[in-house]
Amino acid sequence: MTWLMLACACLLTCLGQIAQKYAVQDWRGAFPGAFTALRSIWLWLAVACLGAGLLIWLLVLQRLDVGIAYPMLGLNFVLITLAGRYLFDEPVDAQHWLGIALILVGVFQLGRQA
After folding, report:
1. Is 93 exposed, middle or buried (0-12, 13-18, 19+ CB in 10 A)?
2. pTM as predicted
3. Where are the domains positioned within the chain?
4. Which residues of 65-84 are buried (b: 16+ CB within 10 A; e: fewer)?
5. What is the pLDDT of residues 71-105, one digit of tens each?
């Protein structure tokens, strides 16, 4: 159950980051002002996802050592890189992919210790 909560915290955090990216894409060039920004559904989705992710993360910290739980959030780097590449057509070079591979190895290694 704890690992499922950790996965949910990761996914919600990533969804929040993706929603933030969608929100600011509408603001390219200049900030539209607070009133207009606060009417963005993407911004509110980001707040909801990040808030829910935080609450679940707190439950995870009750059950896992922070030295195990926190490095698992490295999966967020992997997921956000994939989202950037496939949702936003952002370039990802070989060095970046190497970094992603190293993160995955580290997360796997720490997961085996838990």
Report:
1. exposed
2. 0.84
3. 2-113
4. eeeebeebbbbbbbbbbebb
5. 888 899 999 999 999 999 999 999 999 999 999 99
